[in-house]
Amino acid sequence: MTKNFNFDSNVNKIALEATTDKEVLLKLSSLLHRHGYVKESYCNAIIEREKIFPTGLNFNKYGVALPHTDCCHVNKPMIAICTLKNPVIFKSMGDSNQNVSVNIIFMLAMNNSDNQLQLLSTLIENLQNQELMSNLLRAQAPSTLTRLISNNIIL
């Protein structure tokens, strides 16, 4: 896949405080909107999509969520990366009856549906890199998240 965009530290968060998946989704989608990456409609669309198609994934030592929604809500492609101060429960991507205790979020804003599927596949493959994930979870600044992802994942 060709590189579609650069990551933006302005939409990354470290130790975000939230108690529900909806609160996380609202905070991150609002941040993407404030920086012009998504339309106002994105905020509600991502919350509604998560209810129908949950995005929580369990890996060995951490939980990840990959929320995304339709391309019509996106102005420019971007991924907001967020570590959570305390884990938040998301429903499992594979079984919506199972909970996933999520530590890190990769909120996708893609404006090309063809790229979205390949992006998800690439991300899931790279999320299995335990060293990368440990470094992301230990990051102390949004710029560190940006650097780690930019250096390890070509999107």
Indicate the percent of residues in helices: 25-40%
Mean pLDDT equals 90
The appropriate CATH architecture is 3-Layer(aba) Sandwich
CATH class category label: Alpha Beta
The DSSP helix count reads 5
CATH homologous superfamily placement: Mannitol-specific EII, Chain A
- Work out the radius of gyration: 14 Å
Give me some keywords for this one:
PTrfase/Anion_transptr; 155 residues; 5 helices; Mannitol-specific EII, Chain A; alpha/beta; globular; 5-stranded mixed β-sheet; 39% helix; PTS_EIIA_type-2_dom
Protein model, in words:
This protein is of the alpha/beta class. It has a single domain, classed as Mannitol-specific EII, Chain A, CATH 3.40.930.10. The chain has 5 helices and 5 strands; from the N terminus they run E-H-H-E-E-E-E-H-H-H. It has a 5-stranded mixed β-sheet. Strand 4 and strand 5 form a beta hairpin. Helix 1 packs antiparallel against helix 2. The mean pLDDT is 90.
Layout of secondary structure:
Blueprint: E1 13-16, H1 21-34, H2 41-52, E2 56-58, E3 63-65, E4 78-91, E5 99-109, H3 113-126, H4 130-138, H5 142-152
Parallel strand pairs: 1-4, 3-5
Antiparallel strand pairs: 2-3, 4-5
Helix pairs in contact: 1-2
Concise account of the structure shown:
The chain is an alpha/beta fold.
